UniProtKB/TrEMBL annotation:
This is ANKF1 protein. PROSITE patterns: FN3. Residues 1-25 are annotated as: Disordered. The lineage of its organism: Eukaryota, Metazoa, Chordata, Craniata, Vertebrata. The gene is Ankfn1_0. Gene3D superfamilies: Ankyrin repeat-containing domain (1.25.40.20), Immunoglobulins (2.60.40.10).
Amino acid sequence: KMTQQMRDLQLAQARKPPGPSSPNAAKRLYRNLSGKFRVNYTSFDEGSLVGRGEKEKFRKSYLFQSNAALFEAVELQDLDRVQELLKHYSPEELDLNTPNSEGLLPLDIAIMTNNTPIARALLQTGAKESPHFVSLESRSLHLSTLVREAEQRVNELMAQVVNEAPNSDCSEKEKQLKAWEWRFRLYKRMKAGFEHARVPDAPSSVHLSVASSSSLQVTFWEPLSVNSAVVTKYKVEWSCSPTFSPLLGEAVIDKLKDMHFTIQGLLSGTAYHVRVSAYNMKGWGPPQASMPPFAIPSNWREYDGRVPRRRGQAEALDHLLAQVKTVHQHCICHEPCKNQPQSRKHSVSKSLKHLFHPGSKFLKTLKRGLYLTAIFYKDDNILVTHEDQIPVVEIDDTYSCLLMQDFLWLTKVSCMWDEILWLRQCVTVSQSSCSCILQTRFKMLLAISQMQGLLGIQDLGQVFFEPIKDKQGNILIVTLKEVKTNQTFESVRWVPICKLQSGRKSVSSPEEPSALDTLLISLQEKLAYHQRSSHALSPGLYLGYLKLCSAVDQIRVLVPEQLPNILCHVKIRSNPNISREEWEWLQKMASMEEPVPTEPEADRSQNPLFQELQVAIKELMTLVNIPLQEAKDFRLYSQEVLDFGDQVSFLLLLPPSDDVCTAPGQNNPYTPRSGFLTLPLQIFELGEER
């Protein structure tokens, strides 16, 4: 049977298309032992993995060969090839956890040859050990059988080569002999690796923290010594007793991409002891107790029994909006809205313009007034009209100074683009009051509807935090939206941003650029701001720095340029939860009216949160360019922890009370010099919600 398999393999290789060969073609002949590989085999090369079209073709035609190539790469200890295959093919396509005809998996070969880098790469992809090895005895017997059969086959082929006269058949048998000799050495090396290995040491460290009022998070690190065998899984055990008798539960972690585990379903206020042990092919090693030795599931809210600040708020707002819509349902404002002309002259002008430009109602130039522009971008391209202009519509040609309250009102409207028609109908009824503010806001809604109609899309994106003004009396409100799909729009097309910037003919001077020229010049900055403002923080507990400055009509908040939707911050730790015990310590520190600690004390040196805060405060002061000695006058906000969902929470660091908000003209000693910007408070709140 083995001879027939070897002949099948040689026939397949004879039909192999031309391509780069392996460094040692003889080593590749080991595949004669697997019935899976009786197919045309093509070696992997870098070119076959680069081209997208070639890659898809290869997926459909050579899935068996990808499995063969993975076995070959593992046995040849080719880490680069293993990583390449794991990157371009899924575990299912590689048949990663299906044993071959010898009952082996790629991970078995890696751990028994003690190839730690390859074993780790396989483990992080989800590789498992062969299910055939149910005990140490079964693994030892299996390896002994493989070695014995390979040795027997080598002896048979050697006798045939010695006794037969030189011919083509003899040459083929010599190739088979070399392949079997290599296979024999591999099995011997695997058997020796198994025999010399011992169970692993205990994990080098196990950290226990409180994840919530019903869960604990366990983080562990691999043993300092694995005793010549790769650790393939870990076991987490927990109990209410320090002797772990009785044992309340255990969990086996065999996905080692993240070395942590969350124990769920625990009782709040109950102390739990936790330990972790490591496993390799020789069995389980000794357990390592956690530090601290036990933890009590809890949350800072349990200190005084307060409920989450935002509980039910979203539902209440939805209910309120539904009530408002119900009231207006049978009102005259619910009837179709007719756009009323601003004046006879203005209406005729618009009509004549429409006759000469039937395909577009976008503006090319600004003539002193209030305007709306929508920036849609995808990669390095931007949406423009057929005249290669950024889409601009007029809001009001008699409005020369934009009140901040009108602008902030528009930013709130941007949260409900789909309700513009309904808002227009409601505001129409209110025009009888002849309020200047209502007239302006109604015109804003008209302009938004016009932009939506011309583009054929409702969602215009996010309003940029400040309008663009020029000395000619133009004010330009900018909305930004990233398009991630091949979406089509009406009356517009895509062009590269660089082409738009270089091709525009400016009608203003460099000393006094128009609002449109200013927009084009600063376009990359605005797009970068928009992308950064949508970034989310990774899970964890953060220390934020709250600094405000006031003006006549607004309050602005200091934020980093790289993440403008979040306060200036540094990460304290990956666990976002503040336990009840930690919150009690923070309350005691606040009640003593002591400055924020920057130097350790003997009685606090064992408090993990104190040590984490020390590091975070120093890092935050360095970030905002404030001398560390000035932090002695700062305070931690001790009224609550700011929770942003279940995965991100903030503690706030405040300057002295007189300097939290700087008034106009006041000396501002606690504001960094570069890398930051100030946003209107309402804009910041909207960005935070997004």
